[in-house]
Amino acid sequence: MAGVGQRLNGNLSKGYRQRVGIAQAILHDPPVILLDEPTIGLDPLQLQAIRTLIGELQENHGVILSTHLLAEVQAVCSHVQIMKDGRLVYASALAEWGQRRESVCLRIGLNAPPAASSLAELPGVARVEILGNGRFRLHHGSGLALQRAVLDQARAGHWDLWELTPEYADLECIFVELTLGRSPAE
After folding, report:
1. Where in the chain is the domain with CATH 3.40.50.300?
2. What's the CA gap between 185 and 183, in Å, rounded?
3. Model pLDDT for residues 14-28, shown as the tens digit of each residue
4. What phi and psi, each to the nearest 5 degrees, are found at residue 57?
5. How does DSSP assign 4-67, residue by residue?
6. 3-class SS at 94?
7. Rounded mean pLDDT, 125-148
8. CA–CA separation, 92 vs 121, rounded Å?
9. DSSP code, position 57
10. CATH class of the domain comprising 2-77
11. Which CATH architecture has domain 102-168?
């Protein structure tokens, strides 16, 4: 920041203004630093610089990040807490969350696909999303091993299966479910 030290804060780029705000917050060396939306509106290079700075701050300070950018949480945080109407509705270490994730969708690709209604009849399929070009997303309940049923039906129906990829709930899915009570695709 030495190169811009003589400029007024209002004349700095968004990235430098964010850095000035963080510098003001850490000037007195607090044990805990609360950062509210520190990366909002930054370009990719500024975003990386602020993420690096947050990582450095975490070495000697507790850092609490308040943001709606869930990719940011996954990039820089070790724990996540989700609030709804001022109440804590979810708390987890990201490492634990990653280990507990279960597949909630199965993405499939078929060269000779049946009608979507046939896919909807597979046991445990709650909803079929048509992705185009022979690709579908089969929504199902957690803990359900849908792959075997798809493999068996694809073989029997000559669907020519070329993709079978489990998809897992990310923080965005968890956030939408907990705060709106629905899946993100609805």
Report:
1. 2-77
2. 6
3. 878 888 888 888 889
4. -65, -35
5. GTTS-GGGS-HHHHHHHHHHHHHTT--SEEEEESTTTT--HHHHHHHHHHHHHHTTTSEEEEE-
6. helix
7. 87
8. 35
9. H
10. alpha beta
11. 2-Layer Sandwich (3.30)
